[in-house]
Amino acid sequence: MKALGLDIGTTTISAVVVGMEEREILKAYTIPNGSFIETDLPWEKIQDPDKIMQKALGLLEEILQEHQDIGVIGLTGQMHGIVYLDENGKHISPLYTWQDGRGNIPVEKILSEDPVPEDALSEAGRSICGILEEEYGVKAHTGYGLVTHLYNCRNNLVPEGAAKVCTIMDYLGMRLTGRRTPLMHSSNAASLGLYDAKKNGFRADILQKAGADADILPEVTDDFISVGSYKGIPVSAAIGDNQASFLGSVENAADSVLVNMGTGGQISVLSDTYFTAKGIEARPFVKGHYLLAGSSLCGGRAYALLEHFFRSYAEAAGITGVDHYSVMGKILDEKNDGEKLKVNTTFSGTREKPEKRGSIKNIGTENFTPKALIGGVLEGMAEELYKMYRKIEKGLAGPKTRMVASGNGIRKNRHLQEVMSEKFGMGLELAKREEEAAYGAAVSGMIAAGELTLKEAIGV
Hints:
Blueprint lengths: L1 E7 L3 E8 L4 E9 L3 E2 L8 E2 L1 H18 L3 E8 L5 E3 L9 E2 L31 H9 L8 H10 L9 E3 L1 H10 L5 E3 H6 L3 E2 L4 E2 L1 H6 L9 E3 L4 E5 L2 E4 L2 E2 H9 L6 E6 L3 E7 L9 E6 L2 E8 L4 H16 L7 H10 L8 E3 L14 E3 L8 H24 L8 E5 L1 H4 L2 H11 L2 E4 L5 H13 L5 H5 L2
Parallel strand pairs: 1-6, 6-16, 10-13, 17-23, 23-24
Antiparallel strand pairs: 1-2, 2-3, 4-5, 5-8, 7-9, 11-12, 14-15, 17-18, 18-20, 19-20, 21-22
Helix pairs in contact: 1-4, 7-13, 10-12
């Protein structure tokens, strides 16, 4: 028998077919998502659920025709975003993605005619994120689904007839199984914000005080379980892509640190103890376990920005058709010619300070060179995640000894691998499978179906 894992990413939709016995990927599939909706609002980042469903269901059918012995379907995808559902479980809004910026812009006023609790604040000039932190002591970031929902409530943007919210992968699960209400895994529920991971439940009290009806919240489970079936095949509750990537990359979680470098960067460590710090979240994984996670917003994009810098200069000089990543690698292989530049790679800000920007320091006459700049950017990318790990260490029972790396931003960059290994003082190994999240979704499906245990999957 085989397991199918499907990952609805922001830019692509991926799937893998996994042999249950050997737990190896038999075939992988990737298609473009291509569902972004153009708007006149620069901070609005929304996608078309109809297009996503059409592509995901089409890919699923193609796979089922090719592999007729699929025994379970597991789901994952982009966290934090929400889609509104009506009472019949049909979407009635676009997908408000994790990239949506409305949580950081000033709340103009409450336009709804519905009464608002007396302590719900609506002063112009303050953002939803600011209000939640200042008035309720809750740290939630723009792009988190319930932050988006609160902004929509205050500006009369919630679609009429909205009964529930869920993530896009939860919605796919509903479409496959015919459910009329979502059943969300805690990993996805927590990604919406206003969630108490320690008590495993939404902060409905704060949501109501801030001006939204708690009835919009979905049902939550903290187990890998089935939510129904599609053509007789069990479908498991969708899990967050961070948790899926961990499940699909790490084989010995007791002593491993997972570093992912894609467009953004992320560090994740499994813990059976709840722990948070500034910039560090305790994300639900499965009952009794958390992922202590920190995220760098720029991550691998920092290196891509540097490539764009060199490419734009070369093109201005009339030089085209050059693989600048390869050139950057050759420069790094040259003999060391001085100190690196000290580069802070927070070019996209941080979750705590979205307005923050990066910097380049330690510039001297001897090191104002392409090599020093390239090396400085790599050091900055590693340093940003290493600082997060030092905070995470305080919540761990003991140190970790092994680094597992995933994501194309590090998988395809030998020099970044070397910098990361040296910075953390750990040996680095690449995750065995490139489609980590889709593979992790398949593993969660096998666990939900009783075909695999968590200990067999990651050693705990």
